[in-house]
Amino acid sequence: MSSKNRTLPRILQTPAVVLLLIWMLVPLSMTLYFSFIRYVLNNTRRPEWTTPSPSNWRGFGNYEYVLNAKDFWFAIQNSVFIVTSILIITVVLGLGIAVLVNRKFPGRGIVRVLLISPFFVMPAVNAVLWINMILDPVLGLNGLAVAGINSVVDGLRDFPVLGWFFNLWPVLEPISFRATQTSAYAVIMMVAWQWTPFAVLIFMTSLQSEDESQKEAATLDGASPWSQFINLTVPHLARPIAIVVMIQSIFHLSLYAEIEIVSRGSGNKNLPYLIGEFTNNNIGAASATGIFAVILANIIAIFLLRMVGKSLMD
């Protein structure tokens, strides 16, 4: 290909590349600049801090302030915990459901459509439905199920033979998933429910290209279904699993709506939520936290890209 033929495609690509660079670099540059100055929106004592002026230069003061904030390290730990838990649940459930749905049975097409539908629910709507209709300790399925179990056990306490056994059972109390200790689990459940269909879709598509002759040979050799799944299906799905993990990690590191709706950040914060709290007033601290979030995302991205690259080369 001559240099003249290579020049035209580059010229045509230039506007898109320049626009993409501006779209990425301008917000990042502004965030980096704000992270080094005192920029506080509501400060009647020091009104000069309410404008992003270079004269308000603070150096690494905002970073030190964020590092010493009481919720910073908890937000990082909670971010990693939530993302890791969601990934484990979605990959495991996605693998299991994809293998089951890949079999032939009546109504398979309808089942596939229903399985994918949760992925199209808006995150805020998903959180409202889960926390009010499913996890609510009084009116949700959580409270109704616990009340039903207590009612059944209470009726069996007078049973002639086994009544003494049910008298030993304690009265169950529904779990309040808005509480500090359990709100993170509520976020994990609702996000995993919404994103498992995404994993199922990717895995189902990949299973269509699995070599059936290998499975038939393994069956003739006496290999069990579990052995075939571990030694044939899972290696075949190595690349889709890596891609699912990478894409979901990018999205789940930026969770915000679910945490806001479930707990308003009470004992359940991640880095995006902490940035939102700082943004209410202290733009400098919010920008410094945003830089920390970018660093964390890049560390995870480098690890995941290496994992994806390794699986693609194998």
Task: Compose a concise summary of this entry.
By secondary structure, this protein is mainly α. Helix content is 70%, strand content 0%. The protein is flat.
Question: How does the SSE layout of this entry go?
Answer:
Elements: H1 3-34, H2 61-67, H3 72-101, H4 108-116, H5 123-134, H6 141-156, H7 163-167, H8 183-207, H9 212-220, H10 225-236, H11 238-252, H12 257-263, H13 271-279, H14 283-313
Overall description:
The protein has about 325 residues and is mainly α. Helices cover about 70% and strands about 0% of the residues. The protein contains 14 helices and no strands. It has helices spanning about 5-35, 60-65, 70-100, 110-115, 125-135, 140-155, 165, 185-205, 210-220, 225-235, 240-250, 255-265, 270-280, 285-314. Helix 1 packs antiparallel against helix 14, helix 8 runs antiparallel to helix 12 (about 255-265) and helix 11 packs antiparallel against helix 14. The radius of gyration is 26 Å and the shape is flat. The two termini are about 30 Å apart.
Rough outline: flat
Number of helical segments?
Answer: 14
Quaternary form: single chain
N-end to C-end Cα span = 31 Å
The overall pLDDT average reads 81
Count the strands?
0
Poorly predicted runs are none
Largest sheet: none
- Helical amount among residues, as a percent range? 55-70%
- Percent range for β-strand residues: under 5%
Based on secondary structure, the structural category is mainly alpha
Radius of gyration: 26 Å
Q: Give the SSE order as H and E letters.
A: HHHHHHHHHHHHHH
Summary keywords:
314 residues, mainly alpha, 14 helices
